[in-house]
Amino acid sequence: MRPRELSSADRELTTPPRRRLLGLAAVALAGALAFAAAAPAGAATELRINGCGWNGRSSGNHPYYEHCATNTNVWIQVKRFPRGNYHRCVGPGKTVLDSDATGAWYDSGYQGGLCKHPGDTGP
Q: In 3D, which of 117, 47, 114, 50 has the Cα closest to residue 76?
C-alpha cells in the first residue's frame, strides 16, 4: 500500500510556517542571550574593578588609576578625603595614587583633557 499524498491544506497544517519557525528561533536566541548575560554578572564587575579607570584599594594596596589608551597622556581629577581634590597627568598604564584617594576620573574639561608630562599635578 502506498502512502497517500498530502494536499496543500494538509501540508500547511502539518508544517509550521516559516515565520513561526523564525519567531521561535528568535525567542530561543533571546532567551539564550539573556541567560548568558545574566550568568557572568559578577565576572563583569570584577573586570571593571581591575580594568580601565579608577580602581580602589584592594587587599591593603594603594588605590590606582588605569589609563588604557596607549598613545595619550590625560588629566584625571583625584578625589581625596579629608584633603582636597587635585588634577594629575597620567600616562598609559597603572598610576598609583595617594592612600587617601577615594575616587578618580578622566577630566576632559581640565586644560583640554590632554597633558604632556605624567606626574604633573594641578589644582
A: 114
Burial of 101 (0-12, 13-18, 19+ CB in 10 A): buried
Q: Are strands 101-106 and 74-80 parallel, antiparallel or unpaired?
A: antiparallel
Question: In this structure, are residues 80 and 102 in contact, taking their beta carbons and an 8 Å threshold?
Answer: yes
Beta strands in 1-123 (DSSP E): 53-55, 64-67, 74-80, 86-90, 93-96, 101-106, 121-122
Closest CA to 101 of 55, 72, 45, 63: 63
What CA–CA distance (Å, rounded) separates 13 from 43? 47
- Model confidence over 3-34: pLDDT tens digits? 667 666 665 555 556 665 666 566 666 655 55
What is the pLDDT at residue 56?
86
Contact 98, 62 (CB under 8 A): yes
